[in-house]
Amino acid sequence: MPLIIPKNLPAYDELQQENVFVMHQERAMSQHIRPLRILILNLMPTKIVTETQLARLLANSPLQVQVTFLQTATHSTTHTAPEHMKTFYKTFDEIRNERFDGMIITGAPIEDLDYEAVDYWDELCRIMDYTKENVYSTIHLCWGALAGLYYHFGIPKVHLDKKMFGVFEHRVTRPSNPLVRGFDEVFYAPHSRWAGLDRAAIDACGDLRILAESDTAGPMLLSTESGRQIFVIGHPEYDKYTLDKEYKRDVKAGKPINIPCNYAFIYGRFGMPRLGAAGCGVATSICFWFMAVSIFYYVVRDVQFRDMRLFTPDHDSGTPFIDLPLILSVLRVGAPNAAAMCLECTLFAVTALLLAPLGTDAVASHQIAMSYGNLIFACPLSVGMTATIMTGGYLGAGRLLKARSAAHTCITLAAANAFAAMAFTVVFRSWIVSFYTSDPHIAGLACTLMLFCAAYQLLDATQTAASGVLRGYNSTAIIMKVCVIAYGGIGLLGGFILGRTDLVVPAMGAPGFWIGYIFALTFSSVCYLWQIHRLHMLDKSAVMGRIAR
Q1: pTM above 0.90?
Q2: How many Å apart are CA 549 and CA 547, to the nearest integer?
Q3: 14 an active-site residue?
Q4: Given 142, 280, 379, 453, which residue is catalytic?
Q5: Is 170 in the active site?
């Protein structure tokens, strides 16, 4: 028998192409058959994908099944068009006086949040309370199951050190229960979650029955004795490639990979222990130690540095091997540099955390644009380093005019490179994003952010080259002061206001943070160029005096 869904629901055409028997509501009403009424509270950010997955499974029934989609009124989705939600979804107030044969409460990628911190938790509690009297049987999926167990029985979730991710072997523990009738004794099911359950609390709850569990993934299917409340700690509704897409999404969201060390220590290859997520940290540590030892060996053995005897005390000249005044001088120049770099890194790192409540798609698209931006940042960064070396070298030699020329040349070169990067990014942004993801929704969001990424290239290149010049002049205090205002105030605070609040404009999400970046880089570029102009107006004695301090 068919599944009854609206004819213009995206899942309708897709299921028909798969030869799944679906029927639109007008035709169903003409048959005068009482359908099975199923309410689906779809909490997933990818609404349309989840609709199709569940509809495909519900269609495998000998009964007519009429589906009603429910959304939370206290949380607005940012991943699905408002027109779609308005057309196909109802709110709790619209259905609270209706009764349903069954209900499905889906998962949501918010395991890291405490239940009470979820913005729609109170509404979800009212809905779950509603199911006790108005729904015959309710299935809770993944996070929905964790939330349901907490609400109905007070069973807390347990945060996992590493993500429970993959397809795991399960065994049926109560084969006589009707819910697992027809199951093989051993079956496989997918999991994708950062939280689990307190097994002791489950065993202590006399109202719950574990129907299937895994030695690795833990309890997978639980039910009350009456079958009115069912909890599925997994994703049996997933399609063939859903886990693959989620893996790629997590990688794009910033999970680092050091190849081949990560492969060896995470998965236990090449005789290494299998450490899981901790293996990533081990691999990163090995990579950094290898780079440090390699650079030290090069400095010690290379002819250019060997004659300088960098690591040998010079007793003849009377110069101490450890020169405290020199260390203090280094700190005076270097500490503001370190603070400025820390602030810059903090801006971009914290943005991903502030975007997390908007969903994994928002974070993934942001990380794609950020990853690409970091890649092309190598060019202005190298120009900035060159500006420091050349400017400092000429100033040390007392060649003031050459230092000015080097400064102007490096800034101009960085700007020219930025114009080329801007043009390339705008023209080929869709092609670039395709290397990161095949998910059309994430790709669309990322392509939008790539325009912002292109827009700030000139500003980023200019401020990077200009700050490199200022470091050559030992003028690092101004860099730190500007970074505090630009990154901490304008970039981070301004981005949060535009991206997450309605104080200035309706919350813009990730684009709001990128606009914050642009304003921050504009401010820092103007300040650095003005400081360089002031330095170039000084005479030789004044400049050399500043350097000697």
Answers
A1: no
A2: 6
A3: no
A4: 142
A5: no
